[in-house]
Amino acid sequence: MINSLLGRKSLARVSASPGKTITINFYDVDKKLFLVDLPGYGFAKRAPADKAQWSALTDGYFTQNPNLDLLKLVIQLVDSRIGPTKDDEMMLSFLSQTDIPFIVVGTKADKLNATERKKSEELLHSHPSIPTDTPILFYSALKGEGRSDLWRLIADYTGIQL
Q1: Which residues of 111-141 are buried (b: 16+ CB within 10 A; e: fewer)?
Q2: Looking at residues 128-136, what average pLDDT do you find?
Q3: CA quadruple 126, 131, 135, 138: dihedral positive or negative?
Q4: What is residue 16's predicted lDDT score, i.e. its pLDDT?
Q5: CA atoms within a 13 Å half-sphere pointing along the CA-CB vector of 69
Q6: Domains, in order of start, for the chain
Q7: 101-131-146 Cα angle (round to 5)
Q8: Would you say 160 and 33 are in contact if contact means Cβ atoms under 8 Å apart?
Q9: b/e string for 86-98 if b means 16 or more Cβ within 10 A?
């Protein structure tokens, strides 16, 4: 999504198998903001020790970050084909409890037909881990769907001008 959002092909490394982000990566966007890519947990088929290490990195970013006051928005990615996983639910609860502003982005929107899309939208809008006032949008890195809407939300939360 970062590559698509920034109009680049290989800025953020991607792979065919999930769970390749194992560090915290910072992307400076025109000296106006940083996009921060945290290690994913998703469907990565990795050893429990690896997953624990990623969890510790993410937890440390939110709990030990001296610049947390600069954090304006978390973009919580959820695979739109399956909905929030237990790990997603844990993160969504954490964000809600800590009052960290967040939005939910349903990824891989291009892989859903109209019926599946409607079902996914209903699931996300009614999910108990997602407060009713949380912005939810769908994104397709392949087709660019949701790109301008996501930039608009980023601008709203951060105060940057597009």
Answers
A1: ebeeeebeebbebbeebebbeeebbbbbbbb
A2: 96
A3: negative
A4: 54
A5: 1
A6: 2-158 (3.40.50.300)
A7: 65
A8: yes
A9: eebbebbebbeee
CA 145, CA 109: separation in Å to the nearest integer? 8
Position 82 scores a pLDDT of 94
Query: Which pair of tokens denotes residue 49?
Result: 């020790």
pLDDT of residue 59: 86
Count CB neighbours of 41 within 10 A.
Answer: 20
Nearest to 106 by CA among 98, 116, 97, 96: 116
End-to-end CA distance of the chain: 18
Residues 6 or more apart in contact with residue 28 via CB below 8 angstroms: 34
